[in-house]
Recover the amino acids of this structure.
């Protein structure tokens, strides 16, 4: 386990960590499992696309962004050519702005023109599908891709919209009252997937 | 986030930084082919202007439209009910009855936005009230300075001109002092308010003496009517003593910037060639106003008042 991983069952996550009001029940992926899942997703993306032609990998802020970079780096390492990757912030496209109030904005960095490209959206957890709905609108305002695909590290179910992922790291059946937290080393210092209870 | 923005007094250094950071992200939208965001869809913003304005009104209108809010423009001129004698209060109640979410107000009387905020349930944004404040101007000015200088707390800024009557000066002084900048006000003694040092600024009556040590020379508009009020001997004398001309520009440090809130009196407070020099960021100020006002509308209108009620009903 990575140093400092908040993986011990029953340990409350320290305030300031993602979702401070969260008690861990179990660790469902360790750093090696996260790494293997991302490498497999990278291979699946290239296989489904029949090569890297026209591919762009875009991570959804916050934790989708480093995952997208890692997938792009993995593809570059075994296919030999660099893949454009970027990040999008979907806060301005969310349907719960009026309900939850404004979120802190992060930068949207898209390195290439998206017209005619195949965009692979990357996020850490797929849940209701509402973030992805927002991301689809955000991408379509930036250009007209030939296709948009979706890759997620964890699919926890409970969709509220007709959205399905193309590439999944782990299917994780959950109860609605449970919460899933993904830690990525670029932001949280370790790579783990935790399941727990919201307080 | 605050509900009404009436004065820079309401904002801490942290609030200001948050507003400017948000504006920085929103500015990226301006470079895109599709410049509209769906964020404030269904919300209505009313521009209520009792005084003439070009850039502030257009900037607020465009900011609201870029965020998909609906915009109503109301100017208290011969075509409105104000010409028929409708009071400020009745106008406020009319807007209230029509259900607007934000009122952007400019008024000749200091304190008018404050009064309006007590009558209206909508968010009130002060777009300039009398000689009191113009907070969104100060925020866009800070944003423009921050684009060129990373840290506002080290800046040496002179605000030059009619400090007494300037709402721009008042809001900028508060904002800059809050961010830790060193501010000097400079102008004819008749146009420097007594006791201005209590705002945390230095005072100088000699522009040439302070130029060499500035990061920003902020030039205020001089209003011709100050001459008839006998506060100024003549505009020519003003231009000679406090006008920023190319000779004075040469004495500014290499990195120093020239700013002006507009509209300019070329040849009075600023020479035409200075306003168009590469040191002048006057057009950046205008462009940045859009991003800063989008940021404010997003942060202030993002959440609806009845959101908590709605959340309770749906159990979301």
């Amino acid at each position: 386990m990575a140093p400092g991983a908040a993986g011990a069952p029953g340990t409350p996550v320290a305030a300031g960590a993602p979702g401070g009001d969260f008690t861990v029940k179990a660790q469902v992926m360790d750093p090696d499992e996260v790494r293997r899942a991302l490498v497999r997703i990278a291979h699946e993306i290239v296989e489904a696309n029949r090569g890297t032609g026209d591919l762009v990998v875009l991570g959804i802020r916050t934790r989708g962004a480093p995952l997208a970079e890692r997938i792009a780096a993995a593809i570059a390492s075994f296919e030999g050519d660099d893949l454009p990757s970027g990040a999008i912030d979907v806060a301005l496209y969310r349907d719960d702005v009026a309900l939850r109030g404004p979120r802190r904005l992060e930068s949207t960095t898209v390195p290439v023109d998206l017209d005619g490209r195949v965009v692979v959206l990357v996020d850490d957890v797929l849940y209701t599908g509402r973030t992805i709905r927002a991301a689809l609108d955000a991408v379509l305002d930036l250009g007209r891709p030939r296709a948009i695909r979706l890759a997620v590290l964890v699919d926890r179910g409970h969709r509220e919209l007709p959205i399905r992922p193309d590439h999944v790291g782990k299917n994780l059946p959950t109860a609605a009252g449970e919460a899933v937290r993904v830690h990525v080393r670029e932001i949280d210092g370790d790579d783990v997937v935790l399941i727990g209870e919201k307080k | 986030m605050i509900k009404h923005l009436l004065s820079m007094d309401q904002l801490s250094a942290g609030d200001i930084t948050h507003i400017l950071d948000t504006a920085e992200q929103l500015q990226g939208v301006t470079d895109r082919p599709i410049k509209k965001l769906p964020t404030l869809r269904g919300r209505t913003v009313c521009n209520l202007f009792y005084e003439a304005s070009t850039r502030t009104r257009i900037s607020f209108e465009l900011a609201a439209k870029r965020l998909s809010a609906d915009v109503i423009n109301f100017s208290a001129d011969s075509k409105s009910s104000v010409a028929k004698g409708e009071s400020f209060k009745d106008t406020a109640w009319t807007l209230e009855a029509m259900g607007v979410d934000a009122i952007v107000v400019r008024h000749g009387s200091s304190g008018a936005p404050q009064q309006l905020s007590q009558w209206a349930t909508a968010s009130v944004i002060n777009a300039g009230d009398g000689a009191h404040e113009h907070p969104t101007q100060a925020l866009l000015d800070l944003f423009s300075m921050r684009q060129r200088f990373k840290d506002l707390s080290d800046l040496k800024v002179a605000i030059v001109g009619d400090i007494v009557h300037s709402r721009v000066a008042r809001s900028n002084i508060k904002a800059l002092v809050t961010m830790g900048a060193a501010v000097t006000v400079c102008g004819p003694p008749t146009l420097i308010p007594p006791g201005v040092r209590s705002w945390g600024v230095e005072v100088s009556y000699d522009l040439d003496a302070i130029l060499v040590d500035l990061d920003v020379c902020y030039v205020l508009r001089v209003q011709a009517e100050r001459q008839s009020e006998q506060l100024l001997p003549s505009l020519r004398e003003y231009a000679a003593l406090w006008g920023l001309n190319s000779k004075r520009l040469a004495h500014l440090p290499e990195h120093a910037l020239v700013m002006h809130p507009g509209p300019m009196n070329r040849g009075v407070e600023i020479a035409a060639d200075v306003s168009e020099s590469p040191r002048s960021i006057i057009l950046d100020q205008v462009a940045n106003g859009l991003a800063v006002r989008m940021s404010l509308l997003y942060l202030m209108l993002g959440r609806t008042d009845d959101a908590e009620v709605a959340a309770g009903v749906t159990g979301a």
Summary: Confidence is low (pLDDT under 50) at residues 307-316 of chain B. The beta strands of chain B are 44-49, 70-75, 102-107, 123-129, 156-160, 182-186, 202-204, 216-219, 257-259. The two ends of chain B are 22 Å apart (CA to CA). Chain B is about 40% helix and 15% strand.
